[in-house]
């Protein structure tokens, strides 16, 4: 059991937290709450152990909520790693990196919600699909302080699936001067314009 060496730490924290019952499973689920108790000396260990405190996505709620098991059942391993575990595909490797149709919609690979239209996609040369804007309300933003820097993560507003990051002020000649840098694996392309439909 991978977490065994830390169980005594968790048990101590639970005692300090005045919770009378303990199980490893439960400790895992409530770990984000534990990490907010800043006075506890063992918190950096817990934070590293559970490893997901770099994003606030899991504290948000979304219209489509599934357990990891349910997501694994409908996503490929690569889709699960990117959409549900904030993974990143290798630059230049994605299906939609050099994909420039005249019309159509890029939808969420997790829940099919329309996210980006073809006419907002531009050539950034960065190795991932780049859009200067999303369909209004289709993506949500989070501060992401992983990898030793602060970036703005973008997720599907319908299911919370990780899409990539948004960068501003890079000087691209687009209407917004923003670059939504999205993993191809987080997307599906629909040639017909589905905006406004339930998709
Ligand atoms: Zn989605």
Give the name of the CATH architecture.
Answer: Beta Complex
Order of helices and strands: HHHHHEEEEEEEEE
**Rg on CA atoms, Å:** 19 Å
Strand content: 15-25%
Per the principal axes of the C-alpha atoms, what is the gross shape? Answer: globular
Mean pLDDT rating: 79
Q: Give the ligands present.
A: zinc ion
Please give the share of residues in helix: 10-25%
Separate helix tally: 5
How many domain units? 1
Q: Which fold name corresponds to the CATH topology?
A: Metal Binding Protein, Guanine Nucleotide Exchange Factor, Chain A
Give the end-to-end Cα distance, rounded to a whole number of Å.
42 Å
Describe the main β-sheet briefly: 6 strands, antiparallel
The beta-strand count equals 9
CATH class categorisation? Mainly Beta
Indicate the low-confidence ranges by residue numbers: 1-54
Class derived from helix and strand content: alpha+beta
**Superfamily at the CATH H level?**
Peptide methionine sulfoxide reductase
Strand order of the largest sheet: 3-4-8-7-6-5
Domain MsrB: 68-192
Pfam families: SelR
GO biological process, one term: protein repair
Cofactor: Zn(2+)
